[in-house]
Amino acid sequence: MRARRALIIGGSLGGLLAAHLLRRAGWEATIFERNPDDLTGRGAGISTHPQLLEILARIGIDFDESMGVKLDTILCFDQSGRIYLKETTRRTMSSWGRLYRSLRDPWPSENYRLDASLIRLEQDAEGVTAVFADGTRTRGDLLVGADGGRSTVREQFLPERKPQYAGYVAWRVMLAESEVPPDIRAQLFEQYSFCLPEGELFLAYPVPGFNNETQVGRRAYNIVWYRPADPERTLPDLCTDAGGHCHGTTIAPPLIRPDVVARIRADARALIAPQLAEIFARAKQPFFQPIFDFEPPRIVFGRVALLGDAAFVARPHVGAGVTKAALDAASLAEAARTDDMAAGLLRYEREQYPFGSGLVALGRKQEGAYLSAQLKPREERSGAELERDINDVIIFHKTRSDNLRNVLFAARAAYTSP
Ligand SMILES: Cc1cc2nc3c(=O)[nH]c(=O)nc-3n(C[C@H](O)[C@H](O)[C@H](O)COP(=O)(O)OP(=O)(O)OC[C@H]3O[C@@H](n4cnc5c(N)ncnc54)[C@H](O)[C@@H]3O)c2cc1C
Fold first, then answer.
1. Do the strands 142-145 and 5-9 form a parallel or antiparallel pair, or are they unpaired?
2. Using the 8-state DSSP alphabet, how is residue 215 labeled?
3. Partners of 386 in beta bridges
4. Helix (H) or strand (E) holding 288
């Protein structure tokens, strides 16, 4: 009997995880990625959770010391640079690039097609056909939409459902460890640091370096700074290039106007602890990502399954997008072992829908609620929207893995077999 064939759209972490796990479940899997070149470090620090490590181990990837930077302390800085709270923690910060290489390197290149941009798909009782921008068509038994928060696959089935803007952006920088002044490096480098300007949230931590190294001296320092940006004026202004062209709700980093970069650096000097502001100001190319979330009515459409950010987008405070993609991929691969694909995909949807939905809800709580509420008049805010307490912020961060596990338990408890 021929192996069943999965077409996986999107060659980032979700697509690679699905490909490895489907292959272990007896499928032949091919990944189609729209970028013309192999993806490289996107500069993102990624928090890890036990579920992600367990799934990587199933694929044969040992999460050893080379995969991330271990941290044991959280520091909270005030604007003057004084530490006003110190807490213990246990976490390993990996990076998008490090995880990508660990999944991409063992995957055969003939089953990873670059420059393959899906434009639409067609399906019938026997199979599904992917149609690409260059006119080529490929047939399979299952199509996995792992094509991210702006999924083309999802768009075909749910054209009216759009990701919802949360009212704030995440400014991000990454600076090589060697470029961090030694006194600041000694104070900050092994820790997870917070700064809480009114209405904003600034986080900073070490991650594997630009070439994915985790040795001392070769790591990098990663900053994520959440700032409100109203969708009518501030966001369009941030997304307008030097020629006056507005790129919508996001803009490629090199096109961010010099005056916007100068302003964010000046704001860092004015609002953030000087040690952290210094690192922020030294990074060559600050860039921002608008924060969206998304919850679909379904994640399975015939022979098509959505996975990772293509299915649900939870706000990044949850710190679990990659672990969610891994859990989606594991559930899908298990469900795909059955010969009755319709039943298998129904099982996948029933397992992973409540999980994705629970993570979206979690991301809207606490910090998510507080940051979104900054665009409302103060008298209209209530509960978590109104005030925040540094202890609550720290607890929310320290218990990320517990929160994820609780959402997963609740989702599994809600599961009813098809
Ligand atoms: C500020 C911020 C911080 C974050 N921090 C964390 C964290 O600490 N921990 C964590 O786990 N997660 C974090 N995340 C979330 C995490 O980055 C995502 O959840 C994760 O990358 C989703 O992976 P994915 O493979 O589903 O989608 P993506 O990584 O978006 O990949 C989609 C892929 O599909 C390709 N593609 C798109 N359309 C097509 C098409 N038509 N044809 C072919 N290919 C296509 C794209 O080129 C891309 O390579 C963070 C996100 C943000 C914004």
1. parallel
2. S
3. none
4. strand 287-293
* Rounded CA separation 284/9 (Å): 33
Res. 397: pLDDT tops 90:
no
Of 194, 206, 208, 418, the closest CA to residue 317 belongs to 194
Residue 112, H or E segment: strand 112-113
Band of residue 44 on the pLDDT scale cut at 50, 70, 90: confident
Question: Is the pLDDT at 2 greater than 90, yes or no?
Answer: no
Ligand 1 pocket: which of 309, 312, 396, 404 to mutate (most atoms <8 Å of CB)? Answer: 309
Helix (H), strand (E) at residue 59 = helix 50-59
CA distance 216 to 188: 13
Report residue 127 as tokens.
């199979």
DSSP 3-state of 219: coil
Pocket of ligand 1 contains residue 320 by CB under 6 Å:
yes
Q: Is the CB of 356 under 6 A from ligand 1?
A: no
Q: Give the tens place of pLDDT for each residue, 259-310.
A: 999 999 999 999 999 999 999 999 999 999 999 999 999 999 999 999 999 9
Q: Measured in angstroms, how far is the CA atom of residue 148 from the centroid of ligand 1?
A: 5
Judged on CB neighbours under 10 Å (0-12, 13-18, 19+), 92 is middle
Strand arrangement, sheet containing 45-47: 45-47, 83-95, 69-77, 192-195, 201-207, 220-228, 164-176, 287-293
Which atom of ligand 1 sits closest to the CA of residue 313? 19
Backbone angles phi, psi at 266, to 5 degrees: -65, -40
Residue nearest to atom 17 of ligand 1 (CA): 321
- Render pLDDT for 313-348 as a digit per residue (tens, 0 to 9): 999 989 899 999 999 999 999 999 999 999 999 999
Atom of ligand 1 nearest to the CA of 93: 8
C-alpha pair distances (Å), 128 with each of 3, 138, 150, 338, 356: 15, 8, 21, 18, 25
Helix axes 50-59, 13-24, angle to 10 degrees: 50
Residues in the chain: 418
Say how far residue 297 (Cα) sits from the centre of its chain. 21
Nearest CA to ligand 1 atom 19: 321
Residue partners of 302: CB distance under 8 A and separation at least 6: 123, 128
Does any ligand 1 atom lie closer than 6 A to the CB of residue 14? yes
pLDDT per residue as tens digits for the range 205-218:
999 998 889 999 99
Q: Which residue has the tokens 């077409």?
A: 7
Q: Please tell me the distance from the alpha carbon of residue 209 to that of residue 96, in angstroms, as a whole number.
A: 11
Which tokens in the block code for residue 91? Answer: 């976490």
